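thread: overnight batch results

M.L. [08:02]
morning all. the overnight job finished for the chain we discussed friday. pasting input first so we're all looking at the same thing
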Amino acid sequence: MRKKHVAVLMGGWSAEREVSLVSGAGVAKALEEEGYSVTAVDVQRDLTGLVAALGDPRPDVVFNALHGRGGEDGTIQGVLEFLGLPYTHSGVRASAIAMDKVMTKRVLDSVGVRSPRGLVLTRGELTGGSHPMPAPYIVKPVDEGSTVGVTLVREGQNSPVGDAWTFGERAMVEEFIPGRELTVAVMGAGGKDTRALTVTEIVFEAQLYDYTAKYSAGHAVHTLPAAIPDAVAAEAKRVAVLAHETLGCRGVTRSDFRWDDSKPGTEGLYFLEINNQPGMTPLSLVPEQAAHVGISYGALVSWLVENAACQHG
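M.L. [08:03]
and the structure it wrote out:
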């Protein structure tokens, strides 16, 4: 059988452009090694150019390796739906909800998912100098990925972030959960085959698992499976699958958690957010978890291609 022609979208115009280029290059190389015909497309903020790149020759499938705004918020998904091209990862609605941390919390709260207490502030409220809740607490953009812009406000700071906020007109403020950082990858194309891979604990030098810790070698150590009680691991996996399915995601997602291990049982486990377009770089958590359960990088990207879909295709 003829292997499919896959267009790999990478780059984009978000704060995560450089990470996306690394992810996309890795994906393209792996797909070629798996026998697919591959065209790499460095996506710019140019709709005419993108449509032209996807028109001649027209690919069978689009692998979406974009990260951040424009790539995982439903924007590029809407373009691909309009063109009738099957694409990897989540669709328009699931992508838009998953990218919006406020909306994600509201939707998952309706099915009993516990997340840190929080509120949404305007830029003016955030930079006004007064603290919205007792420190320590977290300030994060509502619609950025990969911990872009995430700030830990400690006791003794005069104001949340000063005048430096550049991530939109709204920000989410959440109580800081002490303890340990956990993450769970989920594979599922819709239906009964959805499954959590494993639980990774991330240990990092700083007090916060930020963008630098995620994408710079030597700043974080991944332990998998995490050395945590079976009940906590099972609950993290259950919630990750529940989040994936409730939001209507497909392909691969990754849900992040904080676990306050001073509390009994699973009482200290808090859902933070879901990433519907996880990184595929050499340091990325999803390929690492897949390898742990016997799925090679090539098999993972091939599975994503073979489970690509287009609602209006």
